[in-house]
Every structure is written in structure tokens, then in C-alpha cells.
């Protein structure tokens, strides 16, 4: 067993440890169940020996033995039922804890991890891999322990009956176990590849469903189908390979065990004929041979399933152990955030450390100022917003809000100080009311309606079938892009934090509504430090400061009129939009 597999098994056992009491009771019941099961062949052998010959049958003795057999079978059934209940409980508690830990850890992962890994792959680890792990864990609980105990018990009984024949059985049957272990070792890498390919397929499906309109708009259905078919074929090949090799275990072990049974039957028959064994004892011995070989078949199947479970568990633990974002510092006085003064000093940042983006960035923003950021695509406008919100941490320099450096402020409190409306809208499955109150769950009906009116969303909401109680699907369902953006604006209108970030906040709204929203924004931004990222320069004329960025640096800075007088890059951008 590799170090990685050993490490994974230790982690699994650690997850099971809180449920040690249930595992202990289940283990004791397994012992009871196996002991009663193994006692039955002795009783059957005794019953056979009560039938010596025609006219010499002890019916009273047989009846007593049948009652004992019935009690043993009943006790076995009850023990196994309780044992299965406990095993299921432990398995699904462990799975619940694992999923809770995984989902909780997802909330702490840096945005960079989410950006760099397909969402479908992450979903596959949280759903499919955990399911596969639970199946293997449950199988291990129900069959592995009982199989081992049965092997030990049958050995004791067989050696007590006839140690010579028992020794032959012991010497031959481990061959089947060795074959099973060899195949299980070979199939581990196959099951891991199967799990990884399944995650790749899930990511592709998630991508195809999420971007279905784009796929159809560009007529890429055939290409998407071809890509899916390629992944599907790879999944089929690696799945068939893993299942084929693991499926050979059972026939091989059954064949070896059948040969053992035949050998014991032949040897036992000669012993009966020579008078050293009775027919009843031989019958008991053959039952024990069956009982002894059966766990080899079960354990061999369990081992192959466990390989799959361990491979899935490795992927789940890889996600759980992915580095979290840097820990939060102690919270400062919240009043310092409300001041809204921002100092950005000598900041440097790059997504890819080999490719520089923002270098030596400096900016001072006074409380209540309206700052616009413009520039060509890829110049670092949205990156600056990511750094302000600490979605990414800066590589060098510092960003201060009031007197506090942002890395000394908890992310929750820092982000609560900003209201954010992005070009890319996000709505959750739920009612219109729940989506508006997402940032302020305790908001009253009056506050929600007032925020919707300020965002000019109230009129279209009231035209919906159930008004504010209308259920919308994930990402807004049938709402238009403009309507979804209005709801996102209403969400910020409801919270009204001390600082605002508007990143192309009206990009999907018609010009007439945009003019109204702009007035609402003007009212909302009064006395609040605001950052506006815009491509349409007509929306930022009233900004106190306009930052013109290019290749991660501020190349021009000033008011609209001042920048036009400079006749530089901003003037070129402006005239290109408003040229006659």
C-alpha cells in the first residue's frame, strides 16, 4: 500500500472516530451474528446423526435441535438488522460531516482557486466522489468485519473437527485472497482515472448547460457534442477497464474455492468410509468450508470497491486540504470603515507571477469622492476592484481604509463596508423578495419595496405572476438581463453601505432606464466613497476624479474637463465614442 493510500485511510478513520460507540456495538453484534451462524452447522450435523437408520430416528432429539436452530437463525437476523442500521447511520453521518466540511471549506477558498478550477469538477468531488466513497465505506462496514470474523470462527471449528483436512483448506484458500489483493492493487489507478474523467465530464456538462444560449447562438452544438462524446468515450474505456479487471476477482476466487470444496468432500468421504468421521460431522465440516470460502469472495469484492472508494476519498480530501485564504485579523472599530478614506500605496499585483499586471499603483481617495476608472480591456480596472474587496491579496504595498490596512480588517467587515453592482449579475433560486434582501435578510417589506422603487424595479416586479413572491430559478430564470441587473441594484439600494463599487452596473439596461438609474445612483453616492468602472464615458462626466489606466498603471488622472484639455489618451477615448 502506498503512503498516499495509507494517509487517506488514516483520514477516513479519523472521520469515523466520533462514532466509535456505534462502531463498537456493530462489531459486537457482528461477533454474535457470526457465532450463531457458525453454531448452526454443528446443530445440523447433530440432527443428521440422530437419523442413524430406518426405524432408528430420534424425533424428539431432532425437534429439540430444530428449536435451537430456529433460535440461532432468529438471533442472527435480529443482530444483522440492528448491525445494518448502525452501519448505515455511521456511514451517512460520516458522509454528512464530510460534505459539511467540504462545503464549509469552499467558503474559505481564495477566489483564485475557484477561477482556476472548473466548477463542474468541484461539484463532481462534492457529489459523485462522496457518493462513491459512501458506497465503499458502507460495504466495508457490512462485509469486511463479518468476513474476517467468519474466517477466524470457521478455522476454529474446522480444526476442532479434523485438523488434517482443515490444514489442507487453510493452505489452499489463501491463493484466492492473494489473487484478489493483486487485482485490487492493479485496479486502484484505474478507479482514480475513472473518478477524474467523471469529474471532467461533469465540468463539461455544467459548462454546456450554463452557456447553452452562447453554444446555440454560435452554432456549436455539434462541436460540444463531439467534445462530450470524446470525454464519454474515455470514461467508458477507463470504466470498462476498471470494472473488467475488478470483475475477474470473483470468478477466480470462486473457482479456487470450488476446487477446495471438491477436495474436502473427497477426503471427507474416505474418512467416513474408514469410520473416522460420521456423516453428520462431514456435513458440518462441508458447511464450514462453505462458510470459510464465502468471505474470500466477499472480501475480494469489498477490496475492489474499497479501491474505488479510496480513490474518490483522495480527491475529496485534496479539495478539503486545498489552502484556504489567509486568515482574518482582529476586527477594527467599524467607524473607521465608515470614514471612507482610501489610500493605495505602491501596490503591485499579478495573477500570474511571471506576467506583471499592476505595478507601483498609488491613489488617495477622500471620503465621499466619486472615482471613475476607465481604460482599455485588460488594463486592470476590475483587478483593482478585486484588490479593494480582498478577493485577491496584493503582492506588495498596502491599501488603507481610514487608518486601517485592509489586511488588518476581517473580510466580512471589509466587504460589508462596500456595496457592489457588477456587470455579471448573480441571483439565487428563490423569490424576488429573498433576492433583494440577500444582503440584509432581516429587512422589512417596506424597506424591500422602497429599495426596488429606487432601482426602478418595482413596476416590472408587480407585473410578475406573484409579484415579490414570484419564484425565480438559478441565475434569474426567465428574467431579462436588464431585469436581473435592476434586482442586483435594488439589493445594494437596500443595504446602502458607506462605500460603493459600480462595475458596468447599467450595461444591460436600456438608455431611458439608465438615465433614471443614474439619478438614483447620484442620490445614493452622495456622501459615499464610490468607484465606477465604465466603458461608456458619458456616465462618468460628474466624477470627482477619473483614473485612466493602461497596462496596470494610472497614465492620466483628473476631472472630465481637465483630461479633455490635456488632449491625451482619455480625450482620444472620449472623442472615439462621441465623434460625429
Structure description:
The chain is elongated. The model has no long low-confidence stretch (mean pLDDT 79). The longest helix is centred in the first third of the chain and has 48 residues, at 59-106. The protein contains 21 helices and twelve strands. It folds into two domains: 3-320, ABC transporter transmembrane region fold (Up-down Bundle), CATH 1.20.1560.10; 335-578, 3-Layer(aba) Sandwich (Rossmann fold), CATH 3.40.50.300. By secondary structure, it is of the alpha/beta class. The protein has helices at residues 3-16, 20-49, 59-106, 111-116, 119-161, 163-172, 174-210, 212-217, 221-247, 249-274, 279-320, 335-338, 381-388, 411-416, 432-436, 445-454, 458-462, 481-495, 511-525, 560-566, 569-578; strands at 342-349, 358-365, 370-374, 396-401, 404-405, 418-421, 430-431, 471-472, 499-503, 529-533, 545-550, 553-558. Helix 19 links the parallel strand 9 and strand 10 (529-533). The N and C termini lie far apart (75 Å). The protein has a six-stranded mixed beta sheet with strand order 6-9-10-3-11-12, with helices on both faces. The protein has a four-stranded antiparallel beta sheet with strand order 2-1-4-5, with no helix packed on it.
Amino acid at each position: 500500500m502506498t503512503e498516499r493510500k495509507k494517509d487517506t485511510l488514516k483520514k477516513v478513520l479519523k472521520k469515523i472516530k466520533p462514532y466509535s460507540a456505534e462502531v463498537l456495538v456493530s462489531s459486537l453484534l457482528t461477533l454474535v451474528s457470526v457465532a450463531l451462524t457458525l453454531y448452526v452447522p454443528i446443530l445440523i450435523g447433530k440432527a443428521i446423526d440422530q437419523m442413524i437408520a430406518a426405524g432408528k430416528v430420534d424425533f424428539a432429539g431432532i425437534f429439540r435441535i430444530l428449536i435451537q436452530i430456529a433460535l440461532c437463525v432468529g438471533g442472527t437476523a435480529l443482530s444483522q438488522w440492528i448491525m445494518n442500521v448502525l452501519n448505515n447511520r455511521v456511514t451517512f453521518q460520516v458522509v454528512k460531516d464530510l460534505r459539511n466540511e467540504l462545503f464549509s471549506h469552499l467558503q474559505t477558498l481564495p477566489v483564485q482557486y475557484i477561477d482556476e478550477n472548473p466548477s463542474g469538477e468541484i461539484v463532481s468531488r462534492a457529489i459523485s466522489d462522496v457518493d462513491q466513497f459512501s458506497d465503499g465505506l458502507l460495504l466495508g462496514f457490512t462485509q469486511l468485519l463479518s468476513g474476517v470474523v467468519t474466517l477466524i470462527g470457521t478455522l476454529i471449528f474446522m480444526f476442532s473437527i479434523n485438523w488434517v483436512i482443515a490444514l489442507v483448506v487453510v493452505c489452499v484458500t489463501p491463493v484466492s485472497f492473494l489473487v484478489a489483493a493483486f487485482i485490487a492493487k492493479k485496479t486502484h489507478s484505474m478507479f482514480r482515472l475513472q473518478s477524474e474523467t467523471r469529474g471532467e465530464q461533469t465540468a463539461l456538462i455544467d459548462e454546456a448547460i450554463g452557456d447553452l444560449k452562447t453554444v446555440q447562438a454560435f452554432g456549436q452544438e455539434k462541436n460540444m457534442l463531439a467534445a462530450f462524446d470524446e470525454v464519454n468515450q474515455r470514461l467508458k474505456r477507463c470504466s470498462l477497464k476498471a470494472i473488467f479487471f475488478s470483475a475477474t476477482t470473483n470468478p477466480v476466487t470462486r473457482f479456487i474455492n470450488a476446487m477446495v470444496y471438491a477436495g474436502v468432500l473427497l477426503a471427507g468421504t474416505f474418512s467416513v468410509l474408514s469410520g473416522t468421521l460420521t456423516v453428520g460431522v462431514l456435513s458440518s465440516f462441508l458447511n464450514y468450508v462453505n462458510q470459510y470460502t464465502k468471505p474470500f469472495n466477499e472480501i475480494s469484492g469489498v477490496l475492489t470497491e474499497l479501491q474505488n472508494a479510496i480513490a474518490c476519498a483522495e480527491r475529496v480530501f485534496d479539495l478539503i486540504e486545498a489552502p484556504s485564504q489567509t486568515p482574518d485579523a482582529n476586527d477594527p472599530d467599524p467607524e473607521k470603515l465608515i470614514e471612507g478614506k482610501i489610500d493605495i500605496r505602491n501596490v503591485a499585483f499579478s495573477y500570474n507571477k511571471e506576467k506583471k499586471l499592476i505595478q507601483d499603483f498609488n491613489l488617495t481617495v477622500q471620503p465621499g469622492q466619486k472615482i471613475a476608472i476607465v481604460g482599455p480591456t485588460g488594463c486592470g480596472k476590475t483587478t483593482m476592484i478585486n484588490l479593494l474587496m480582498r478577493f485577491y491579496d496584493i503582492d506588495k504595498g498596502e491599501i488603507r481604509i481610514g487608518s486601517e490596512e485592509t489586511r488588518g480588517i476581517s473580510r466580512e467587515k471589509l466587504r460589508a463596508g462596500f456595496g457592489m453592482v457588477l456587470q455579471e449579475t448573480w441571483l439565487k433560486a428563490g423569490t424576488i423578495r429573498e433576492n433583494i434582501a440577500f444582503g440584509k435578510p432581516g429587512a422589512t417589506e417596506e424597506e424591500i419595496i422602497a429599495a426596488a422603487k429606487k432601482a426602478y424595479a418595482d413596476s416590472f416586479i408587480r407585473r410578475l405572476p406573484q409579484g415579490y413572491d414570484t419564484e425565480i430559478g438559478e441565475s434569474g430564470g426567465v428574467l431579462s438581463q436588464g431585469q436581473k441587473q435592476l434586482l442586483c441594484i435594488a439589493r445594494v439600494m437596500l443595504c446602502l453601505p458607506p462605500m460603493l463599487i459600480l462595475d458596468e452596473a447599467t450595461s444591460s439596461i436600456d438608455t431611458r432606464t439608465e438615465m433614471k438609474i443614474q439619478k438614483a445612483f447620484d442620490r445614493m453616492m452622495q456622501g459615499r466613497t464610490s468607484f465606477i468602472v465604465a466603458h461608456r464615458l458619458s456616465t462618468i462626466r460628474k466624477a470627482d476624479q477619473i483614473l485612466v489606466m493602461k497596462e496596470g498603471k494610472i497614465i492620466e488622472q483628473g476631472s472630465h474637463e481637465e483630461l479633455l484639455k490635456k488632449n491625451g489618451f482619455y480625450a482620444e477615448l472620449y472623442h472615439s465614442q462621441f465623434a460625429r
